[in-house]
Specification:
439 residues; alpha+beta; Creatine Amidinohydrolase, Chain A, domain 1; Creatine Amidinohydrolase; 2 domains; six-stranded mixed sheet; three-stranded antiparallel sheet; 14 strands; 15% strand; globular; aminopeptidase activity; manganese
Amino acid sequence: MTLTDAPATLDALQQRHLERLQQAYGDTLTRLGFDGVLLYSGHPRRHFADDQEASFAAFGHFMHWTGQADLARSWLLIRPDQRPRLKIHAPDDFWHLPARLPDEAWVQAFDIEMSRDDSPPVLPAGRFAVLGEVSASLADSLGAACNPASLTSALDEGRVRKSDYEITCLRGANRQAMAGHDAARQAFLDGGAELDIQLAYLGASRQRETALPYANIVGLNAHGGILHYQHYATRPPARRCSLLLDAGHRHRGYCADITRTWAGPDADPAFAPLIEGVSALQHELIDALAPGVAYPTLHRRMHQALGELLVDQGLLHCSPEAAVEQGMTRAFCPHGLGHSLGLQVHDVAGRVDGQGRPLPPPETDPALRLTRELEAGMVVTMEPGLYVIPMLLAPLKERAAGRDIDWPRVERLADHGGIRIEDNVAITATGHDNLTPPE
């Protein structure tokens, strides 16, 4: 094997990523008439009437350069054809550990100042913009435009297609997250409560709760039917019908977002076949991922397949087409098929085209977060679901469509919550690459 054939190291991939960013920012700033842009990492919010701060994640465009999710009150100046200038807030402090530089390749590509204060740097003469959670008055004091829409939209678009470095980071995040899923499943099978399952996940994925890219969803039984269930029960339920685990990881700023559902020892016999059906559906949809495919088309395909599954498993007594047309599949699955993934779990520019023009979701599917045509370099989630949510199904009883639902069978599944199977997939020039390790 020659040197050119050898796989690139992570440092080399990051150097290429930064070179690509420097070129892209330079082209965008020049085209829009800016001499540079100042990116603010952001700062955590304090709880009301308290000195404790909430969990924090840095501004996505700041992380695009540094990968540092917890670097607060810091500033990054980008100008065409000049080294990035980074001012890191690192005060003398015995209450907290000040910020430190990681042993990563990007550090060598920046001019870095470790500063005791968090004030923005003085900008040179020229036309500048400042982006992030900043006030118009602060931007005025710097003589800079505050979050101009044209620049923000262009930089958002620049994050849609991931570099090889970013794909590698996303793959690493998925690897760690899947280690957590394996441990969580074992904790569930061992009879653990939701809190036990969460702790097993954190331990195996090697992260603290505040470092998660989103709050893990650990739903036993009916809690799996609450799409963003936000608690962790400390006692196991008397009956263990199901576990829905939606849990991620952040690696160098990049997010994994994986969901699995498992049947418990007390599950109704109808539940496991439904899990198998949703898993098979997910695999079929992943196989269809490729450049040029419109994501809303896949979303509609999901609903058609859900109709087929619900009919095949005896929950509905009508045609799959009727199940979709009468809104029954949307009562069983009210969320979108997936979303863009990157530095943010629901990454930017998912509902606009390449020129920043709005691509709103269909009226029937307002929760669909990705309405674009797929392109090589995108990373998306693929997460079909099937739930028994009483508040969504109850209105069907008052309609003619309700006669086609096997209500006794549905009610036996009500305390199982629901099913969601989610992988993270990169779109390649010829198809796709599933970043989520197999179980």
